[in-house]
């Protein structure tokens, strides 16, 4: 039967993970909080609110609700200043090829992202039309590792979760896909994404044979 391919956005379709990191690091510095690359892995796939909560807890800081809102807005302004300069060159290698291959095979294609900026970014890199459905941070109430975002995507594709395949670069996202009973494909380091069913360094390592197997099995 038809399969549903669900793509995370940041760090999978485009290399925006580095921009999130830069913006969070700047904000953390302003609060005298330092965080490592390892801690940054824990922010990947995690909503804006949850990310700020984590950073504050690492720095043992508590702030007022107003200050919290102010910092979130500031982080997003910084992040958007990077996004504003994006173009199609920031699409990660072989993404268009893989999207076209899956489309040619008449399979479902969805975006499943925690980001509230997902639509803006897809427009910037001219990939919005590649997705049958887009589920992002504006559509969910529970952040990854909760499976909500992927379950909504499956529902909108009209494909059962067990027939869906998720591409994720984050630990939280791999967990969400596994909990949703979907096949999880980690994009990145196996030492970080070991819980995924498969891990590839990037899309150049994913062969058409492998995609065909996912479609036919
Ligand atoms: C993605 C990124 C996270 C980011 C989250 C919310 O999951 O991996 O780093 O915090 O989206 O993004 P937003 O653009 O709404 O702040
Ligand atoms: Mg991601």
UniProtKB/TrEMBL annotation:
The answer to whether keyword Isomerase applies is yes
InterPro entries the record matches: B-phosphoglucomutase_hydrolase (IPR010976), Beta-PGM (IPR010972), HAD-like_sf (IPR036412), HAD-like_SPP (IPR051806), HAD-SF_hydro_IA (IPR006439), HAD_sf (IPR023214), PGP-like_dom2 (IPR023198)
Does Transferase count among this protein's keywords?
no
Molecular function as annotated in GO: beta-phosphoglucomutase activity
Q: Per its UniProt record, what Pfam families does this chain match?
A: Hydrolase (PF00702)
Q: Kindly report, in one word, the top-level EC class recorded for this enzyme.
A: isomerase
Highest taxon of the source? Bacteria
UniProt entry keywords in alphabetical sequence: Isomerase
User: EC no.?
Assistant: 5.4.2.6
PANTHER family given for it? FRUCTOSE-1-PHOSPHATE PHOSPHATASE, GLYCEROL-1-PHOSPHATE PHOSPHOHYDROLASE 1-RELATED
Q: Which family does it belong to?
A: Belongs to the HAD-like hydrolase superfamily. CbbY/CbbZ/Gph/YieH family.
Identify this protein by name.
Beta-phosphoglucomutase
């Amino acid at each position: 039967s038809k399969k549903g391919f669900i793509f995370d956005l940041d760090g999978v379709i485009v290399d925006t993970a580095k921009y999130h990191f830069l913006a969070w690091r700047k904000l953390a510095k302003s609060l005298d909080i330092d965080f490592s690359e390892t801690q940054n892995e824990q922010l990947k796939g995690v909503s804006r609110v949850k990310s700020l909560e984590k950073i504050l807890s690492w720095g043992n800081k508590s702030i007022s609700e107003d200050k919290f809102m102010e910092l979130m807005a500031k982080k997003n302004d910084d992040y958007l200043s990077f996004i504003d300069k994006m173009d199609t060159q920031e699409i990660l290698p072989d993404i268009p090829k893989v999207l076209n291959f899956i489309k040619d095979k008449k399979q479902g294609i969805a975006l499943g992202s925690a980001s509230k900026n997902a639509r803006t970014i897809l427009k910037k890199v001219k990939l919005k039309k590649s997705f049958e459905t887009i589920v992002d941070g504006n559509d969910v109430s529970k952040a990854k590792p909760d499976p909500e975002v992927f379950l909504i995507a499956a529902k909108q594709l009209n494909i059962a979760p067990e027939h869906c395949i998720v591409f994720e670069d984050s630990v939280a996202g791999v967990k969400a896909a596994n909990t949703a009973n979907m096949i999880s494909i980690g994009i990145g380091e196996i030492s970080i994404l070991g819980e995924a069913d498969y891990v590839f360094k990037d899309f150049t390592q994913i062969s058409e044979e492998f995609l065909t197997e996912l479609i036919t099995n």
